[in-house]
Structure formats: C-alpha cells, structure tokens
Amino acid sequence: MSTILNVLIGVLAVGAAVFLNYPAPPQSPIVYQWQSPGKFMQYKEKNIFYKDELGNGTGTVLCLHGFPTSSFDWYKLWPALKRKFGRVVALDFLGLGFSDKPRFHKYSIFEQASIVEELLQTLQTNKVHILAHDYGDTVAQELIARHLDAAEEKKNYVNVMSLCLLNGGIFPAKHHPRLMQRILVLPLVGTILSKFINYYVFRNALGEVFGPETWPTTAEFRDFWGIIRHNDGYRVLGSLLSYLEERKTNEERWVGGLQKTVLPVHVIYGPADPVNPPEFIEYYRAVIPKPSMTVLPENIGHYPQLEAPEATADAYISFLETISS
Hints:
Elements: H1 2-20, H2 29-35, E1 39-43, E2 46-54, E3 60-64, H3 78-84, E4 87-91, H4 109-122, E5 127-133, H5 135-152, E6 159-166, H6 179-184, H7 189-194, H8 199-207, H9 218-229, H10 237-240, H11 243-249, H12 251-260, E7 265-269, H13 279-287, E8 293-295, H14 304-307, H15 309-324
Parallel strand pairs: 3-4, 3-5, 5-6, 6-7, 7-8
Antiparallel strand pairs: 1-2, 2-4
Organism: Limulus polyphemus (Atlantic horseshoe crab)
InterPro entries: AB_hydrolase_1 (IPR000073), AB_hydrolase_fold (IPR029058), AB_hydrolase_sf (IPR050266), Epox_hydrolase-like (IPR000639)
Keywords: Signal
C-alpha cells in the first residue's frame, strides 16, 4: 500500500512540475504585429511596455486597458483611433501585458496612475483625451481626482481634454466581481491557486463576461492567454486584484471625482455584462451630474471594444464631435 501511495505522490509531483513549468503558447502573428513596434519605459527599475503611433487626425488619445488583459484589447479599435487622432498611445500596466510582472509586489491603482503620468512626461505630451476600460477606468478616476487636486492647489497638471469610460467598476456598490476574482484575491489561497490557472480555466473565467453571441474565437482566447503567460503573469493576478478593495476604500475620492469634474465625460456601456449589470445604467444617471452615455445592443458584454469595435468607435467619435462643436 505504501508503495502505491509513494508512486501516486511521485506521479502527482511530476504532473505538478510539468504543469507549473509548461511553456506559454507561441506568439501569434497578430500579437507579434502589436508588440513589435512597441517600446519600453523605465519606472523605478521596472519595464513598462507602451505603444505610441502617429495618426491622421488631431490631438492625442491615451488608452487604458482592463484586468486581466492588456493594451492588446485596443487592437480592433486602433485603426479608427488613428484616423481620428494625430497620436495614439497605450500602455500595459505594471503586472499585465508585456510590462514587468514582479512577484510579491504591492500593486496599487495609485502607482499605476503615477506610471501613466511618467509615461506622458516621457512622451512630452501634456494634453490628452483618455479612453479607458475596466481596471483602466479606475486608474482614470484617480487621474481625474489628481486633476481636481491640482486645480484646487493651483498647480499644473496633465491637461485632460475628455474622458470616455467603457464597462468598468466605477461604482463599487454596483460592481459584481466574478467567482475567480473573489477566490484569487484571498490571502495565501489566491497566491497558491493562481499558480494552477491554465488556459481552460482562464478561457471559461474570461468568457463569462462576454455577451453570449460575441465570445472571442479560440485564436483570440489563446492570444489573451499567451500575453498573460508572458513573464509568468498569471502568478501575480491575485496581487493585482487588490484594486477591488482599493475601489471601496477610495470610493468618495474616485466617484466624487466624476461628480465634481467639469471635464466632458462619457460612458460606452455593453449591457450583457455580469460584472456591471444593467442596474448600472440608472445608477450612473442618478449619481453623475449631466450624465452622458451610449448603451450598446443588448448582446454586447464587458468588452465593447472587442465585441463591437465599429459601434464602440462610432459612439466614441460621436462623443468627441459633441465636445468639439
């Protein structure tokens, strides 16, 4: 009996070792095309990946992506943004995408906002439109709060021209984290379990937030997973999820910022979103003064820029035209 048990333990140990060291999937041509023109900025000895491309229009747009994905989320919207703007910028937040993913790091929305500020200084641009999604919405809220702080103190700050938010947990009371998020955020338990996430677990967890008719293709899922696996990023997902508690702790600052700002703010919302279900619509309209919102068709979920890129681009450009006219 002891021999069988020893063999079983040995097999499980080998299986776990193979699983934990299984290589990331090869990079697809479309991801390579996205990554290869990108650059890296140093922030406190950490490498931050970003893209900075010229367009055919005017002004600069800064794109802030969501969790657990990356700036690659914008690839379907990128051509439309380059037609509208003269400069299109996107970054991968620390811990995500092609940026460094330090383990045992205390990830914070405040730090991510400081990284954005550093990037804009590096690019020598101080006048931007912000287009954000999910996790990026919260980073944008902190940037707006800093904008207000600077105005009160009569200090110079990033000249934000407008803010457009795609589906995100901007209101903690109306945000419903998925089961996988609630598990990964648990101390110790999340750290251990994050090591055992594989492609199939990831695909099912991420797929939950898409509309029933707009699921990514197998190739798209593998691209998302490959980027998460870059630099063993799946091992820090639990640490990054500290932003869920940060949202609650800083609700007055971040929601208050949206209520107080005089900047043009617009929301593009996909209603088939279990993370931010349709109750979000009326809450937003009740809480935010002069609310501006585009509600997409009912089959569009948490990732409008991937599920309905043309409708999202049209809605965004229409918003920009209203503030420039």
